[in-house]
Amino acid sequence: MKYKNETLIEVYIDWCEVSKVKMDYNKTSFDMRITVLMKKQLNTNGFECVKKDANTMTILRLSAFKKYFVNLNGVEFGVEEEDDEVE
C-alpha cells in the first residue's frame, strides 16, 4: 500500500478516533516516529515493512508486516484452530 505522508497520518488519526486511542502527534512528530520505528524495529532482521521514498510517500508492505508479526509472535494469522469438541 502506498500513501502520501499526509494521507497516512489522516488514516491514523481516523483509526485513533474510532478506536478511542489518544493521538498526541502532529504531522512532523508522527513522520519522525514512523521513521524511527522503521529503522529500529520494522526493517530489521531481514524485514522491510515500511519504505519512504523521496516523493513524500510511505509504502507499507503488508506481506512483510505479516511475516514480521508471525516471526514476532510465533503465530500464523488467519489460521483457524481445530475444534476438539466431540459430537
Model description:
This protein is mainly alpha-helical. It is 49% helix and 11% strand. The chain is built from three helices and three strands; from the N terminus they run βααββα. It has helices spanning 5-19, 27-42, 62-73; strands at 2-4, 50-52, 57-60. The chain has a three-stranded antiparallel sheet. A hairpin with a 4-residue loop joins strand 2 and strand 3 (57-60). The radius of gyration is 17 Å and the shape is globular. The N and C termini lie far apart (44 Å). The model has no long low-confidence stretch (mean pLDDT 86).
List keywords for this structure.
single chain; 87 residues; mainly alpha; 3 helices; 3 strands
Proportion of residues in β-strands: 5-15%
Output the structural class. mainly alpha
Strand elements, count: 3
Helix content range: 40-55%
Query: Whole-number radius of gyration?
Result: 17 Å
Strands in their spatial order, largest beta sheet: 1-3-2
- Number of helices, where a helix is a run of at least 4 consecutive DSSP H or I residues: 3
Low-pLDDT sequence parts: none
Largest sheet: 3 strands, antiparallel
Q: Give the N-to-C terminal Cα separation.
A: 44 Å
Rough outline = globular
